TrEMBL record:
Keywords: Transcription, Transcription regulation. SMART domains: HTH_ARAC. InterPro entries: Class_I_gatase-like, DJ-1/PfpI, Homeodomain-like_sf, HTH_AraC, INH-QAR. One of its GO terms (molecular function) is DNA-binding transcription factor activity. Residues 244-342 form the HTH araC/xylS-type domain. This is Helix-turn-helix domain-containing protein.
Amino acid sequence: MKSAVAPAGRRVRVAILAPEHALGWTIMGPADMLHSAGTLWASLQGEPDAVNRFEVAIVGRSSQPVVCFQGLRLMPDILLGDAGYEPDVIIVPALFEESVRFGRSGWSTPWRPFVEWIKARHARGAFVAAISTGVALLAETALLDGHRATTHWAMMEAMAANYRRIEFVHQNGLQSAGAGSRLVTTAAGTAWQSLVLLLVARFAGAQQSIELARLFSTQSLADQGKRGCPGFVPPSDHGDAQVLRAQRAIAGNFEHADALVDAMEKASMTRRTFERRFRAATGYSPLAYLQEVRMQRARHLLDSTVHGVDEVAGFVGYGDVAHFRSLFTRMSGMTPSHYREAFGMGGMLEMAQEVL
């Protein structure tokens, strides 16, 4: 079977299914997060040319609005019968518990068409993830037979009784069906957020996954119960075009010793004027601003790479590692090593590579 990797030159196609009685937030939540990946953070950082790697579509049975549980109505972008639409990723949302009555609910309508659609697309290489009670719909495909899965705690016993060829487990918020299976299931609550982070890590890289986790205050798999760490949002709406040029110069040259000299030249100002205007516009002295930019980059490197702390210090412009450690600890509230332990995405990336 083909691997679920989008060809170069186009975005990753993500189909979020919209069956009747789905929980709307498990459709719109993943859609919003995926639409934001790579662009919202870049916008906050003053980077205008960022590109989103995901093309998200809501897939329904007909052109009529889908009525979700509690009455929310969603208009599909794609129909199950649309020829030629081949997603790289399929997300099955949660279904209201009373609708998941297996033999009594009648899988022929309205959910059976989704079951067959999933089976066909998975056979052609799509990665499939089911959220919470939506695991019942994925279980109907028989793709999970012989594998491990998880689901909402309230439905675990009922699903285990109805799908005896699946091993349901309680321990994990996310459960891979196995290496190369291209199947993942999630438990209750907001476990779907970790699913989205998994997809972003796999298709867009660890750094974008980390940025998304921070923007949505979402915990990574390796960050259960740990407190947040401050981020840095460069002020950009101050109206001083010369200072903005200096900020962009720093963003592109922060690792060099002459970063501030270069920024001052880009702004076409004397030192005294530069320092005064920069502080008035941004609220930071040029040096403090440079340190914030460097620490932001250092956090990304500690989050998403295996480079040692000494290497990270050099990458962000500090030849004196002791000074870097001290500055990082003061500005981040923890040492570089503790930061990596708390927020590193190694587990997420390992699962992404295993599943896909």
